[in-house]
Amino acid sequence: MTRPLVEILRDLNKRVPDKIIDPDTNTVPWYHANRMLSFYAPGWCGEVRDVIYSNSGTVTVVYRVILKGTDGEAFRDATGTAKVHEGRNDDAVAAAEEAAFSKACARFGFGLYLYHQGSQDLSS
Length: 124
Prior knowledge:
Blueprint: H1 5-12, H2 30-40, E1 45-53, E2 58-69, E3 72-83, H3 89-106
């Protein structure tokens, strides 16, 4: 059951229930973001667009989240970077992908306000 994009985006911009926010990091774990996308945007999909290894021991993943509405599709890309520890590329790629996925969701408005909590209001 798909819905118009405007409805999906409106719902994704709602405040995230406090019980799913990780209090240690003030973020929404990726698995909750996945569940919320499936609830508000049935038929969404995501894909790793690129994996970039640097000489400095980090890996960056470019991830795209695609929302499918009755009136079209919308996508957002984001990157996540993680340090490679002890040659374990698989762990670093997974961590970078998780960060990129979460940021791509935030670019649709999901939990975006969490990135700004605690920062000073510059308009005052």
